[in-house]
Amino acid sequence: MDCPEIFSQLEVLHRDAFGWAVSCCAGDWHRGEDVLQAAYGKALRGKARFDGRSALKTWWFGVIRLTALEEARGIRRWLDFLKLWQAEPQERDTSAQAAEKDAKLIALSTALLALSARQREVLHFTFYQRLSVSEAAGIMRISVGSARQHYERGKTRLRETLQQQGIIHERSDS
Amino acid sequence: MNDPIPDEDLKGLFERQRAADHERAPEFHAMRTRALAAQTANPPKMPLAWRWALPGAVAIGLGLAAVLSLHHAAKSPTAAPDTLAREFDEIDAALKGSLAAQNAAAAQFSTEPPSLFPAWASPTASLLDSPRISQ
Q1: Is A144 in Cβ contact with B14 (below 8 Å)?
Q2: On chain B, which terminus has fewer CB atoms closer than 10 Å, C or N?
Q3: What tens digit of pLDDT does each residue of B14-37 get?
């Protein structure tokens, strides 16, 4: 598949890809945008090539995830440098904070940050991206059993946190 | 394996988040144009292996050249070739002069005075003479 063809398909995935990039950056819209921009750059330069071994969405989300990890490493190094000089990093501008101070979204964003990265990822894929757990496992490169475990634990913990805050109510079937 | 039972509360919250993110999402074409512009501004870099191999090879070459030149300098004398040839000639001439003087002295002392006595001979020396048959 050549570059223009891939980009025409990436355009269809663009909004979901942005949501995934934001999620990879702990809800930070600006960083999410930077990550997605860098991922597009990789695809243009041929640094990230789609070989057709997996679905395009699986490949593209994997590229975004890797790019976010690379950026996070850079930021961590920068923060370490700042700590060295006794400076404090600026407060993060999360998507929830920017979303007109929606209390429920702020609570969701905060509760998600309390989860492990794996739990956060699998919940994002299943609830936000509407993928199955096995599809999420494919993107996360873990077994379906492991993904399911992260899903169950993450969901339980997220529910508990949100219930404590009164965002959601206790389920009648649980 | 069946997928887990959907959680409507969480689903609703994530949908809300999704809508907010989609509203905020930058334009695809703008991002693509920026990526293209960045690519034009920064042409692709050399592959990582070459980025290390090339300076490495240059460094090794320089090191070898330095070692070889040092080795060569240690082996060869520091003086210029003309000076060495001149010194060699001078030494040679001095040696030749010294030998000639020695030879002259030896020749002078080798002229002994004539002896009053016949030269000494072994008493059995006559036995070594070849027999002569008288006719």
Answers
A1: no
A2: C
A3: 999 899 888 888 999 898 888 888
Is the CB of residue A31 less than 8 Å from the CB of residue A71? yes
Number of CB pairs, chain A paired with chain B, less than 8 A apart: 102
Q: Which domain holds residue B34?
A: 13-43
Cα–Cα distance, A167 to B13 (Å, whole number): 9
Rg from Cα positions in chain B: 53
Contact A40 B32 (CB under 8 A): yes
**Position B33 in a domain:** yes
pLDDT (tens digit per residue) in A106-138 = 889 889 989 998 999 999 999 999 999 998 998
ipTM of the predicted structure? 0.77
Distance from C-alpha of A112 to C-alpha of B23, rounded to nearest angstrom = 21
Profile chain A (174 residues) by mean pLDDT over runs of 10 residues: 78 92 87 91 87 85 90 75 58 54 84 91 92 90 94 94 86 58
The CATH architecture assigned to A1-93 reads Orthogonal Bundle (1.10)
Determine the residue among B1, B9, B11, B17 to mutate to test chain A binding: the one whose Cβ has the most chain A Cβ atoms within 10 Å.
Answer: B17
